[in-house]
Design brief:
single chain; 7 helices; about 0% strand
């Protein structure tokens, strides 16, 4: 039986790739240098969905996009800015906040109502962010 890696082991592999004795290419990467990779990997996911209809390829390409997220998070952690755990926490909070029709007392009976609810919360959040920027230039 072939070994299956865990999420924690994957995080350790990415950290090892970026370590002093890891891969020179991976160590050299920055947020900016990885923009091209993120675009390419995202496009490959879209192609796997639209053109290839190949689940195995889609699974592989989603892993490549996940690697981009993990690498960016690892770089940020090395710079003491944020960690993958912060990314996960922020995403979970956003999903709960933007789905008051699931996690709160609002109702959404159709996909359109769900999307409208998401967009309304998103617009309020954007307005609050803009207000904070104006108050603290």
């Amino acid at each position: 039986m072939e070994k299956r890696y865990t999420y924690q082991e994957l995080l350790e592999i990415v950290a090892e790739l970026r370590s002093d004795h890891g891969c020179p290419w991976d160590r050299k990467q920055t947020h900016e240098s990885m923009i091209k990779c993120l675009r390419e990997e995202s496009e490959e996911v879209i192609e796997a969905i639209e053109e290839q209809k190949d689940e195995e390829n889609l699974c592989e390409e989603l892993g490549d996009v996940m690697l981009q997220v993990l690498m960016h998070s690892q770089i940020a952690a090395e710079e003491n800015r944020f960690t993958i755990e912060d990314v996960v926490d922020m995403l979970a909070k956003k999903l709960v906040r933007r789905h008051p029709h699931v996690f709160g007392d609002q109702k959404a009976l159709t996909a359109e109502e769900g999307l409208a609810s998401w967009n309304a919360v998103k617009a309020r959040e954007k307005a609050l962010r803009q207000e904070k920027i104006r108050e603290n230039p």
